[in-house]
Amino acid sequence: MLKNRSYRRVGPDYRFDEQVSFVDIKQVFGLGHIRLGKWVENDERDKAANLIFDSLADLAFILKLPPQALGLRETLNLAFGSGGQKGVQAHYAPDRRELALAKNAGAGALAHEFWHAFDHYIADKSFYIAASGTSFASHSWINDVKPRAHPLNQRLERVFAVSLLSENGEDGHEYVSRAIALDKQYGTQYFSKPTELMARAFESCIESYADITNPYLVDETLQSSLFDAGGYPSIEHRQQIFSALIEYFEPLGRALAKE
User: Fold this and answer.
1) Are 2 and 47 in contact (CB under 8 A)?
2) Structure pTM?
């Protein structure tokens, strides 16, 4: 049970041991609506609020973003203990623009699912996407959808290139080759999807950030069976990806702070 579990977090103290609420989360991080499951007990709600607040604050700190930016202009919605999928610790629902965390199994998945939300949100701002259908920026990039001309969009394309292409920019990165091999091994089409490749690349960079450890935000990209199987970028590759991420998110944060 969530209320009986502990998560060893190392990082800045944003709350100074104060109890926060989901209303605080909505306001501080600029989220849309928040749904709580009817079976969430008060002590579970309070513990989850602190964990999610610290996790989102850590994410904003690492990416050098204003906290309000994580709400994606109040389009990102959050569900806790409500709207989950059986056997899934967390998921992002594009049709509702909702990041859903399971009550007792959502730990470690927030960074991964936040990337999906961002990837979805930024797609039509970065690429000329048809009005019909759901699309993600990573999917649009890999399929050569025409990009919208903007310096920030060029930096986002650089993130995709560093993550998914070899140094010559013409071949798939070894990280992609390993993901294709995993799909063949398991008979799936999951690990090599551009959306999933980028979500794993993003969360692995967040967990590899030296000064913050937060197993509720992200976990198991440095030590797990999937890591052993090559499902995440190498440590050296993560450093390259993280540099590209900061070169994108830091100026994005400065631009948002001026609005």
Assistant:
1) yes
2) 0.94
Burial 170-201 (b: 16+ CB within 10 A, else e): eeebebbebbeebeeeeeeeebbbbbbbbbbb
Rounded CA separation 120/188 (Å): 23
Query: Of 61, 51, 3, nearest to 24 (Cα)?
Result: 51
How distant is the alpha carbon of residue 113 from its chain centre? Answer: 4
Q: Is residue 168 domain-resident?
A: yes
User: Which long-range contacts link 226-232 to residues 24+ away (Cβ below 8 Å)?
Assistant: 229/178, 229/182, 230/175, 230/178, 230/179, 230/181, 230/182, 231/178, 231/179, 231/182, 231/191, 231/200, 232/175, 232/200, 232/201, 232/204
| Burial per residue of 61-76, b for 16 or more beta-carbon CB atoms within 10 angstroms, e otherwise | bbbebbbbbbbbeeeb
**91 and 132 housed in the same domain:** no
Give me the sign of the Cα torsion angle 218, 220, 222, 228: negative
Q: What is the number of domains present in the chain?
A: 2
- Regarding whether 94 and 159 lie in a shared domain, the answer is no
Residue 81 resides in a domain: yes
Look at residue 3 and tell me if it is in a domain.
no
Of the candidates 75, 106, 137, which is a domain's last residue?
106
How many other C-beta atoms can be found within 10 angstroms of the C-beta atom of residue 4?
A: 9
DSSP secondary structure code for residue 42 in this structure: H
**Model confidence pLDDT, tens digit, residues 130-174:** 876 669 999 999 999 999 999 999 999 999 999 999 988 889 999
Domain boundary among 48, 71, 106: 106
Output the six-digit token pair for 192.
């090599």
Q: Phi/psi at 189 (nearest 5 deg)?
A: -130, 70
Instruction: Tell me, yes or no, whether 57 and 130 share the same domain.
Output: no
